[in-house]
Give the backbone structure.
Amino acid sequence: MSPLHLLRNTPITAVLFDYGQVLSFPASAEVFARMARLLGHAPDAFALAYYERRLAYDRGDLSAEAYWTDLARRARPGSVLASEQLAMLRRWDIDMWNQTEPRMLGWLTELRAAGFRTGLLSNMPEDLIVHFRAEGAWIQLFDHLTFSQEVGLIKPEPEIYRHSLRGLGNAAENVLFIDDREENVATARELGMDGICFRSTPGLRAELVLRAFSVLPASGGD
């Protein structure tokens, strides 16, 4: 039997996207290793520490200085980051997440041409938001943007999804939500949206074919 979220009679008129690891490539292991060396972490330990308080940083509970200083002190208690070290870490973090996936942006362009409304719902800290608003031409492809730090909420908190739906102007049952984390997709479904947990562009295409979706991302292996 098909999953319940595939048994839908309402048309999809809007697509709501996550950013990281959906519209962008995964975080670079090389950049992670560079950050770890600067802070004195073993690479594996750094990756765990990086994400442990990331949601608080994305929501705006922590400043950039507080977030990166906390990471430094986890490796070396009492550490104080020099201003140039902090600046490098913040720059590397932007660079690491500034690698967009061309096939996904191509699909986004085709969705808009076909008349779908498009939205972005992303857990993202201020540094990345400021950069993308200034330099990310791709954000012009969206009808509405919801960034966690700007609204003081994070996925999977239901209210941040409601904020996105209000901005899009679409009823939940007419929205498809795409995110790489199952817990984030689960909240979207609880609110009445259809949801796909993103693993790869070909995998997304296969999910859309099951739904007889009218506009598909370009085929091709990863």
